[in-house]
Amino acid sequence: MASYILKRLLIAVPLVFGVLTLTFFIIRLAPGDPAAFFIQPGISPDVADQIRQQYGLNDPLPVQYLKWLGNVMHGDFGRSFSRAQQPVFDVIAEALPVTMTIAVLTLIANFLFGIAIGVVSAVRQNSFLDRFLTVTALFFYSMPEFWFALMMIILFALKLPLFPVSGLNEVGAEGYGPFGFLLDRIWHLALPVTVLSINGAAGIARYVRGSMLEVIRQDYIRTARAKGLSERVVILKHALRNAMLPVVTLMGSSLPFIFSGALFIEVIFAFPGMGRVTVEAIFARDYPLIIANTFVSGSLIVLGNLLADVLYAVVDPRIKL
Amino acid sequence: MLTACSKPKGGQALSAPAKDTTLVVAMLGDADYLNPVIGSSVTSANISGLIYPSLLQSEFDTATGLLNYLALEKSLRPVKAQEGARSPKGALARTWSMSPDHKSITYILRSDARWEDGKPVVAGDFKFAYRMYGNPAIASPRQQYLAELVGADRGAVDFDRAIETPNDTTLVFRFYKPVPEHLALFHTSLTPLPEHVWKGVKPQEFRESKLNLQPVGSGPYRLASWSKQQEVTLSSNPSCVLPKPGNIRKLMFRVVPDYTVRLTQLQTGAVDVVENVKPEDFGSVSKANPGVELKTVGLRVFDYVGWSNIDHDWYHKSGKLRPHPLFGSPAVRVALTHAIDREAIIDGYLGSYGTLCNTDISPSLKWAYDDTIRPHAFDPALAARMLEQEGWLPGPDGIRQKNGRRFSFKLYTNAGNDRRNYACVVIQQNLREIGIECKIEMQESNVFFENLQSRNLDAWMAGWSIGLEIDPLDVWGSDLDKSRFNFTGYRNPRIEQLSELAKSKMRIEDARPYWVEYQQILHRDQPVTFLYWIRETHGFNRRIQGAVLNISGTFYNIDDWTLKPSANAAP
Q: Complex ipTM, two decimals?
């Protein structure tokens, strides 16, 4: 397995690199100008040109590419155009913890609820409970996140003021002490994590239900029951483990989400996370930041796929890598 | 656990006394640089205006629309007692004198102002800052302010001759040509930087410098903390003498990107100020929370429909000018304005927060505004007659034609603007009724702007936000290479003459006749169809007292604001 992983990692290097090169040219071909903000009445016409000079955008494209290539080889992805010339990885490092907190909490909730609902509705297939859970899950699954989030805010922050409307912490939360600060943070995360996980759990529940239904019809489940094992052990130990195979793939492909962020939720709840960094960079034509983001998410997709394949082999001994 | 922390009601987690000393302003995006030389957003300018000292205090006179400049012992115009009057104590200059030939201005500075680190604010700090403003490697968006200094006419300001500092409290600016006093005051009052802090920083590293994160100022507030993309917190600066430490102990500028959420927070009291509330929400905002009031600023922003006056394709191909086949004639453009029901757009969307726009001189600039102009009334019959006189006759499909060319075009605008979207649809219908086919196309803002810049569009809807100084040549100048914002290709030498004549007047009031003629020409020629001025409207929590707004800014006198103690605070 080690040599398989190594081989996949070696293939990943030119793959990610190719993605970056493609991004480098595509964003420069897109209409728009990183210095466009400085083209307005009252600002000297020289400014936009000086800014482009600073960014090195006045060089011919091949020269720009070679310079960029040289810097990237040294691990220097440059400084952000739109965010006060911060090194791009500083920008990402500031946004990542926020995004990861939300994403990890969401994923845990997603899988816990998703698997629980999926198992229940598979075991009680076609019962009222199953129908109810299925319809509810579909209802939430098809609901647009941004709209759902706004409705939750109106309900639980405006009409019933139980939760804060947005932000990571209350004004003046620094004075609450470390425990109070943490509670305040959790209080602020409650609504967004709920919105994200209701949506995600509904999807996962559908997967689990489907694969569970297939598994409980297998012979070895009948055998387990015939051995006289309790229903709980049959379902949770024998059936669930096998039903988890497709869900493991989902876990692997969720990895990029942990780092890429959930744009709508970040905008609505005013979290300074990766989703906003990415989208704002694109609108501002902030080339270095776009490329750094592509690098992060591209690498993670490759790693996520690898992880899913490895996990597959771990949970299913029949698969040999 | 949730009940434990949800005990404070509706986001008012602060205990009453702490809340009573903190003002929270919601902002759309973070400040870029808290450095007056390179900060480019309005937010940055608002915040650094509170941190840094200013040479003069400027005051907007709503009765005339003129800016007044105040030093400790002198003012450009007599100071009127008006609401929100600025204290001259905010100025670093004690007085100034303009040379008789209008080619230099000398300031005498006060000696008691200190930077936050205790060092005095001296004339050298201004000279140093102006070198930074003028350095091409720094690319300051304010380098236009240096355009009249000695040497600027030959390409680069000669700082040794243009700015002199004979001693710490004397500051002299020299110009290469006579400059009206109000313009000299405007252009020489850029914010200084502490030379002793910044002098070691190379211009190439100026934008990257860590010093940008710890601004050293001497204004009524100082930076307490800055979490990027979240909030900027300012605290009142106890050592400030310009004019005094800010009244409210803490100002918090929080980034809330989503409009609906900003509005909700205003209603729950989690934030106190939200800028640019949309007209469709006025009713619900004040109904949901009587503790919120809406305040409007003057008229500074207008929308218009741009008509390409020249044939852009031909101009791109041959470099030569010829009238646009559809919009080249002034009579056609006037007819189009008559055909568009501008009042209906205002009534349908802006209500009392919009007013008809005739030209790009704002009614708020009363000293220059021509109130005798009669707006082109909505009159489809007249519009049709005018088009027929121009040879545009109804075709077999109901669309007017002339020499085989159908009167059909695409109206472009930027996506995501509800107001322009609404206006476009009304215009499309209005034009359909007089036999003109108009297709609407929305473009992503960057793409739209680039198309405008390169003069690729025949017709579009956009807007301008005007400056407090009237300077129309960027938009109407005849030299299309120099006038980058003349998207229409409108050319009229008289407009240029009038602007030059107006600018050459040493007293701004004397320029009025030129601006009146300017407005009449624009009204007659309709290079664009001016639609409506928008009264920008901001939401304020009523606990804020003493806030005065005008077109020079929402936070015009924020250091004078106070907060009413909350009613439920136990005495």
A: 0.78
